[in-house]
Amino acid sequence: MNIKIYTILAFLVVSVMKLEGGNPDRQGQAGASELLMNPWGRSAGLHSMSTSSVMGVEAMRINIAGLSRIKKLEIGVSNNRLFSGTGMNLNSFGLGFKMGKSGAFGVEFASLDFGQIPVTTVNQPAGTGGFFSPSFFQLGLGYSFTYANKISVGMLMRLVSESIQDVSASGFAIDAGVQYVAGPKDNFKLGISLRNIGSPMAFGGEGLSVKRNNPDPAGGVNYELTYDARAASFELPSMLNLGVSYDFYIGEENYIRGLTNFTSNAFSRDQIGAGLEFSFQSLVVLRAAYKYDLGSTDLETSNIYTGFSAGGSVEVPISKGGANNLGIDYAFRSTNPFKGTHNFTLRFSF
């Protein structure tokens, strides 16, 4: 057991050493930025900084190690209204279920909706009357295992696909994570997650082909040749999260959770933040957090999600004894620029 734990920790440490974290000079050089978007309401209310305490289907987006801390089965659906005023949405579906006593397997699907974009050309810059919508989606498959209810480890592989008319790109990303809990009521929690480690992606397809006249027509006969333009490849937005939290209990079921998190971004500035979460009778949860960019805060190199976030959850029992619950989550995250992002999530726990 210890050998397996140390192997995973060593993998995380070696992978982190290969990252060039906190480098604003590389801002904009990574692609597939939808991998950084969090559709789930509970963790979004804490600015995605719940690395140490996240559990259930949303752990597949923050720290896969928390997936195995579900009861038996959890289903989640979400709608994420991105950057208010842009008309963009991120929709997601997650399913997690126990495998044996300590393991859990999960599936997460997310799709980015850009709305209807007018088709324009050089000769018709005002639009041709047609519309198109890019297709960006992700499919993740993950597994997590908990040892002695103290240490959880997990790994997830995610397919990334981006396409627009006759041009597309696809790739794979790997996430890995560890969680550790201690204390009489598991008060102390520590989490480490490494996300979006994968091979470079590159666009290709007929949309990058152009026809030009043959520069040296044989026998005076003019004809066209097809030339393929090779698109440059791009990296995935790798990141490392380190988080700790502590639960201060007020009575048997009420608690205040304080947490802090450090994010090392390979293609943007590092971030640090802290948050609070108050749980009342495991029925109502309120949360708020603040995230800050380390270093210069000029707009050109700052991360879009900085500043304040807040949210809440309501747990509605749907069976006697509270074994089965319906969870309703909402979160708001401030953005710079735009007018913030709204998250809505429904969860079913069995």
Domain unit count: 1
Radius of gyration from CA coordinates: 23 Å
- CATH class designation: Mainly Beta
Distance between the termini: 29 Å
How is the largest sheet built, in terms of strand order? 1-2-3-6-7-8-9-12-13-14-15-16-17-18
Mean pLDDT level: 89
CATH superfamily: monomeric porin ompg
Quaternary status: single chain
Q: How do the helices and strands follow one another from N- to C-terminus?
A: HHHEEEEEEEEEEEEEEEEEE
Structural description of this entry:
The chain has one domain (2-200, 235-349): Beta Barrel (Porin), CATH 2.40.160. The protein is elongated. Strands 1-2-3-6-7-8-9-12-13-14-15-16-17-18 form a 14-stranded antiparallel β-barrel. With 350 residues, the protein is mainly β. The protein contains 3 helices and 18 strands.
Search tags:
350 residues; mainly beta; Porin; 14-stranded antiparallel beta barrel; two-stranded antiparallel sheet; 3 helices; 50% strand; elongated
Topology:
Elements: H1 2-18, H2 41-44, H3 59-62, E1 73-82, E2 88-99, E3 103-113, E4 117-118, E5 131-132, E6 135-147, E7 151-164, E8 167-182, E9 188-198, E10 209-213, E11 224-228, E12 239-250, E13 254-265, E14 271-280, E15 284-293, E16 307-317, E17 325-333, E18 341-349
Antiparallel strand pairs: 1-2, 1-18, 2-3, 3-6, 4-5, 6-7, 7-8, 8-9, 9-12, 10-11, 12-13, 13-14, 14-15, 15-16, 16-17, 17-18
